[in-house]
Amino acid sequence: MTPTQALSLSLLVAGVVFGLKWVAYLLTGSVALYSDALESVVNIVAAGVALFAVRVSKRPADRNHPYGHTKAEYLSAVLEGVLIVLAALAIVREAWPRLLAPEAVADLGLGLLVSLLASSLNALLGWFLVSRGRRARSPAVVADGKHVLADVLTSVGVLLGMGLAGLTGWWMLDPLLAIFVAVNILWMGWRLVRDSVGGLMDEGLPEVELSEVREALRYALEGLAAEGRVLEVHDLRTRRAGPRTFVEFHLVVPGETTVEQAHQICDQLEGALQAQLEGVQTTIHVEPDHKAKHATFRVG
């Protein structure tokens, strides 16, 4: 399933979940279930925005965007992070008056059953979106999945609060637990925004993936160094834009190396990186031996 298809599914399921949660609110009149339903509206908007962003990111490079449109996914992820934060604040706003004046609700059992069904659908959808988005390296799909999972946390908190309140008669448990979950969602929203802003700011690859790049280069350079065709690689830089990874470095070769020979070496190194990292785009700056820095990836 492509990222576009995954987000289309998310949009469809978000509509169904909102309908179920709204029914739960109508059955009980619970302000907590009402706020839970409101968050599902945010899910619908977020899924729509993410779907639009993925479609934009798939556009090919053009004159005005020579590096493509992949960063559109980060803009979507930032927006979803902001929406998560707003949803958490909305929960606190709805829970606070009930905290000051607790009230019992009607038809609690049936309402919780309907809400549980909606939350189960959301949990399956969120898990699917995050796993699919990571495989496709799509920030927008991962962000939408995390947003859905944040909604599940909200719903679980509301269900627990309502259930305990129904068993004990202490209706203050409902808003207290809802506020606790809202704080956790605020943290998730912050992390999502922070990761997305890192992509917009051309943050380098995480250490795990950077190590994979270094190992791929070391393996490819061993034979070239033994033949005396490569002396050093330095000034390694990386960044990511959506599903694409950009790797740049300077390649030091003997001064007598011809342009054709240098080109063949570059092709070999690019192939080694492409075999290790899907969607990698490599830029290599070839330099003569007197430019060596005798630093990173020195092989000769």
Give a quick summary of the entry:
By secondary structure, this protein is mainly alpha-helical. The chain has helices at 3-28, 31-57, 72-100, 108-136, 139-168, 173-200, 207-226, 259-276, and strands at 232-241, 244-252, 280-287.
Protein model, in words:
- By secondary structure, this protein is mainly alpha-helical.
- Helix content is 69%, strand content 9%.
- The chain has a three-stranded mixed sheet with strand order 1-2-3, covered by helices on one side.
- Helix 1 packs antiparallel against helix 4, helix 2 runs antiparallel to helix 5 (139-168) and helix 3 packs antiparallel against helix 6.
- It is elongated.
- The chain starts with a helix and ends in a 13-residue tail after the last strand.
- The model has no long low-confidence stretch (mean pLDDT 81).
Please describe the structure with a list of short key phrases separated by commas or semicolons.
mainly alpha; 300 residues; 8 helices
The tally of strands reads: 3
How helix-rich are the residues, as a percent range? Answer: 55-70%
Sum up the overall morphology in one term: elongated
Largest sheet: 3 strands, mixed
| Rg from alpha-carbon coordinates | 26 Å
Report the end-to-end length measured between terminal Cα atoms.
Answer: 46 Å
